[in-house]
Design brief:
This protein has a single domain, classed as Medium-chain alcohol dehydrogenases, catalytic domain (Quinone Oxidoreductase, Chain A, domain 1). The two termini are 23 Å apart. A three-stranded antiparallel sheet has the order 1-2-3, with no helix packed on it. It is mostly beta strands. Helices cover 0% and strands 16% of the residues.
Length: 81
């Protein structure tokens, strides 16, 4: 697992925006979103809160579930990663 605090725990994120950075204008608190955590980096999505880059984050329609509707990152061809 690596040293404490360095393990990657999941790369697929979905949920409701809790807070945004000062230079973020595309998203606001309460938005339904999904995102990708940077692979092979510390942190991840197996947590109550997660952090994502705005370029990996996208809006989820209200009718889309937060659970199990996205393809795993492993299913995308290497040319997409």
């Amino acid at each position: 697992m690596g040293e404490k605090g360095t393990a990657n725990q999941g790369d697929d994120i979905s949920g409701i925006v809790h807070e945004v950075g000062e230079n973020v204008s595309e998203f606001k608190k309460g938005d339904r979103v999904a995102a990708f955590h940077e692979m092979m980096k510390p942190g991840g999505s197996y947590a109550e809160y997660a952090v994502s880059w705005k370029h990996t984050t996208f809006f989820l329609p209200k009718q889309t579930s937060f659970q199990g509707k996205f393809r795993s990152l492993r299913q995308f061809p290497p040319s997409m990663g």
